Amino acid sequence: MPKMSNLRQAIYEALLISALGIALGLLLNRQLLWNVLADQNAVIPVQTETDKRLVPVALDETRELIEKGAFLIDARPIEFYREGHIAGALPLPLSTPDGDIKGFRSRVPANATVIVYCDGYDCNDSNLLGLKLLAAGYREVLIYEGGFSEWEEENLPVRKGDTP
Question: How does DSSP classify residue 81?
Fold first, then answer.
């Protein structure tokens, strides 16, 4: 019988530790859990050392912001831009040197709303370019995570060549 008592004690302790771990995990991730349960986008914006944020936007919000005058920026390599891009988007490949981003400011003011995209949810170029734009002084940098692939799948306007 003493072995059974020790086994019960060990099982009890393991269950207690597991329950405490689950409770702590839920407590620390409550906002993410709430977003998932509320069927909201569960993506948490990336925060930079200067306390500026890259904010993700969905397709509908992207379209609304473009109608209000936001600048759409394609972070993909220039070859991909030429093969097809969202109509009205300006090319600014991630590989662009920092000095050229400062020259970009002559076309897009730093106080403008800027929406950066690349090829879709698996592409991180838009986030990296967004961080470069924040570092260059842009204040409102949004990331359209669905990118060109989602835009094209929805049969929205696209262009080929160098013309935005």
Answer: H
pLDDT at 156 over 60: yes
Cβ–Cβ under 8 Å, residues 76 and 35: no
pLDDT higher than threshold 70 for residue 130: yes
**Structural domain boundaries enclosing 19:** 2-37
Domain count of the chain? 2
Both 31 and 52 in one domain: the answer is no
Which pair of structure tokens corresponds to residue 155? 């049969």
Model confidence pLDDT, tens digit, residues 85-109:
999 999 999 888 876 777 788 899 9
Provide Rg for the chain, Cα atoms.
Answer: 23
Instruction: Quickly list DSSP for 31-77.
Output: HHHHHHHTT---PPPEE-TTS-EEEEE-HHHHHHHHHTTPEEEE-S-
